[in-house]
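Lab channel / #folding
Pinned by the channel admin:
"Please post every new chain as: sequence first, then the structure tokens as a reply. Keep commentary short and put observations after the output so the thread stays searchable."

First post following the new format, from NK:
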Amino acid sequence: MLWSDPENEPPKELRDMQNMLRRLGVLMALASLLTMIVIGIR
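Reply from TO:
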């Protein structure tokens, strides 16, 4: 790795997309967990 190499930083749009997908994944996991609990209670 040279000092003159550019930063390996993804563009802002890509970072925003990754954050949104991460939040969506967490939300989906929580929703499926809640669904399993509700089905288990019945």
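NK: The radius of gyration is 19 Å.
TO: also worth noting, The CA atoms of residues 4 and 19 lie 29 Å apart.
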